[in-house]
Amino acid sequence: MxxxxxxxxxxxxxxxAQAVQPDEILDDPALEARAxxxxxxxxxxxxxxxxxxxxxxxxxxxxRLLVRxxxxxxxxxxETVDYIVDRYGEYVLLKPTTGGWNWLLxxxxxxLFVFALLTGAVYIRGxxxxxxxxxxxxxxxxxxxxEQILRD
Amino acid sequence: xxxxxxxxxxxxAALVACVQAVVPMIGAHKRWPGWMAVAEPAAxxxxxxxxxxxxxxxxxxxxxxxxxxxxVMNSHSAKPMxxxxxxxxxxxxxSMLLWVLILALFGxxxxxxxxxxxxxxxxxxxxxxxxxxxxxxxFILLTSNPFLxxxxxxxxxxxxxxxxxxxxxxxxxxxxxxxYVGLSICFSFAVAALIEGRxxxxxxxxxxxxxxxxxxxxxxxxxxxxxxxxxxxxxGGFWFWDPVENASFMPWLLAAALLHSAIVVxxxxxxxxxxxxxxxxxxxxxxxxxxxxxxxxxxxVHAFATDPERGVFILGILVTFTGGALTLxxxxxxxxxxxxxxxxxxxxxxxxxxxxxxAVACFVxxxxxxxxxxxxxxxxxxxxxxxxxxxxxxxxFMVMLGLxxxxxxxxxxxxxxxxxxxxxxxxxLGLAIAVAGLFWTIQTGRSLLGPVGLFLGTWxxxxxxxxxxxxxxxxRDYSRLLRLPRADWGKAVAHAGLGITMAGIAGLMAxxxxxxRVAELNQPFELGNYEFELLGVERVRGPNYFxxxxxxxxxxxxxxxxxxxPEKRDYPVAKMPTxxxxxxxxxxxxxxxxxxxxxxxxxxxxxxxxxxxxxWIWAGCILMAIGGILSLTDRRFRVAAGARKAAxxxxxxxx
Lengths: 152, 655
Hints:
The structure holds two protein chains of two kinds.
Chain A: H1 2-14, H2 29-39, H3 58-72, H4 77-88, H5 102-129, H6 140-151
Chain B: H1 2-30, H2 33-36, H3 39-62, H4 69-74, H5 81-86, H6 92-113, H7 119-143, H8 167-196, H9 201-232, H10 243-268, H11 272-295, H12 308-332, H13 347-379, H14 387-410, H15 418-442, H16 449-471, H17 479-483, H18 486-511, E1 513-519, E2 525-527, E3 530-541, E4 546-556, E5 559-564, E6 567-571, E7 576-580, E8 582-585, E9 589-598, E10 604-612, H19 614-632, H20 635-642
Antiparallel strand pairs in B: 1-10, 2-3, 3-4, 4-5, 4-6, 6-7, 8-9, 9-10
Helix pairs in contact in B: 1-3, 1-7, 3-6, 6-7, 6-8, 7-8, 7-12, 8-9, 8-10, 8-11, 9-10, 9-19, 10-11, 10-13, 11-12, 13-14, 14-16, 15-16, 16-18, 18-19
Signal peptide (chain A): 1-19
Keywords (chain A): Cytochrome c-type biogenesis, Heme, Iron, Membrane, Metal-binding, Signal, Transmembrane, Transmembrane helix
Function (chain A): Possible subunit of a heme lyase.
């Protein structure tokens, strides 16, 4: 509860600023492009499900500047992300790692897909081999009714 | 006085719902016609009572009755009338009242148009619908009563969240709820069929219009929300994979699957138990959406009224209904014998593939949405699952869907020949490859996203046209196109709409151009082929806000093509700023201009974007909804509705 209140307060105070500001942009366009790419994968900690590239919060601005600082120091993209994860935890990663039980998250879709394909294939095979119900014969009621019709 | 009447009407409606939930069910079990017949007038009465209640609350908002707590919290006397009305559902309590209003509306519609249903099935459908109603009436009256008064009424209200004061968002919730809650009728049909132990072609035919209707409303509701995000949030994002967006997207995916599997039930009497399961799950996901929005369990920009007590109540409703229905399903599903026989290559198989892809896609969204919760509770890890995950894990299934769709849509029932269909589709395929190749060569950078999206878009649209043309055969008599059943047109239009949406999403994501700078007055700058110039900035006063409004000229080859007025608004009562982007909408691209803060050294922060194909995203959604309307007005549904007295109670045979 406290956490969400805190976040709300932050959003209210901080929306006055805006996402990436002109003074943050690096002179080197290649470096800036890398910074933008990294920013889009990092979560703004005080916002709700926003990346730091889009966020207006001042903490997001601090993180954007930090990313650019690391890139200017000559870090690679991975090193920059690791640097931030070391300090803020894996909560900042919008794209979760595959480590630990997270493999299940990544594999859940493909696993279910394979399972569903197999089930679907078995079902379709069954349907294509099943005897048509008409060939299975008529019920007693239907037989009686058919006889009646034929007699008429 | 009017408020108290509304409150009273709501309590009466709850009592009527209790009667409707019990009496017809017993009647259907004992085969007592009198008891079953209670359902119909009860459904009508319940709807009218909730309508009175809703009208009373609307009256309080419109007249700015600040003795009502809800009005104080969410309204202001200076607010424009449109937003006074939309303020009724722009909050937790009011939106729940809208929710039960729509629930009662669908119950009443089922009563009014359900004349050709067998009496026991109709009584049970309305009974189950009323059970859901009872749960939500209890929820409103016990935890979220909108009719509470203030001991000391203040002079004015606290205003509605300014982000919600927008025409797009004013109508977003009603459409979304029409979709969410419309699925309750499919749920009621599924549960009633399980109790009856009978699912046949006629059942499929009855369920389909309701599914179509809900799916169509969900499509419109989601599109409105996404369009709102695009122009209101200030950088033109249209989808954020936010938990609450996902909560509306999952029922949409399942409703789309249900729509298609119900066709197989109707035409071929197969996939019965799967269709029942889908109907239960689709509504289950709607309930879960409500739970996610209102419990504060997952952090989201949309979450309002985050209150644990309410969350637990809704969780209880969710578990009771979904769990109860699934238990019933487990006990009875074995009784559903499939009848239709079909070959491995057939329309039926294609629709099975459609269902697999949609259901797995929904599952991916589901796992991704809930994973942060699972990880925290089971493994003690605090982590996020955001857009990059969903883009990677979800997209492949949509691409497969797009690839298979035109082929599957043209396969014939029972036994089909792929070769023949592929020969017919060859021109469409060639065209799609040509378009993709063209854009692959002219684009800068070597991203696959844009060409793949345009390939799928062209393939789906051309495939839909091929499908229609194939229906007139070799006769070249194009007037036959107009005489095709509307359902065929609906199918083609909706499938083409999906293609256009896919192309729009890919185009926007792949080729967007952006420029962020400090713009000085009267100093032109360029982006893409366009030149922009900030001509002036003014302070403007709106009804309940102050605005900083820039004036921007957009030129192409020296000629002015647009004059844009981006705004930054401050709402003094709600103490919130909003950005109002100025957008020049064109067929092939949008120009999107946002003004920011003044800089100390002079000039203003400005963001300018060129967004290729942006409109296509929503144009495709509109086409999908139009496709739904066309199918819904197909002759067999109209005839079925008109001939209700003549139709035998046993139902109509397939084909």
